[in-house]
Amino acid sequence: MLITFKSQSFSDVTMYQEHAQRILDVLNKNHTRGVITAAEAAHAVQLLEQEITLSKLHPEVDAGHANHSHPHHLPEEDESTEMADKNHIGFAQRAFPLLEMLRAARDGGDSIVWGV
Question: InterPro entries, per this entry (predicted)?
Fold first, then answer.
C-alpha cells in the first residue's frame, strides 16, 4: 500500500506504507490518514532528524527495520554481503523526501496531509 503526503509547500511524496510507518511512529501519527499542522512541523523536523541520527549511529538496528531494498528482490544464496550492503536503502535515505517536505511546510507555514 502506498501513502501520499501532500502539502502546498512541496511536491507530493509517495512512500510504501511499510517505510512510512516508522516515520509516522516517530511522529506519533496514524498511517491511515492524518495531518501535521504548520505548528507541529518544527517539532516533527527535530524528531525525525534525531531518529535519522540514531539510525546512522546504529546501522545494525536500521538494517533490522528495513532489510530489503526492493520488495520483490530475494537475494541469491551466493550473493555477497558487500552487494547486499550496497543495495540497502537506509532509514535516512527513505526519510529524506518527507524531511524536506516537513522543512518546507515549517518554513512556509503549511500543513502536511495524507489519506484524505
Answer: DUF1840
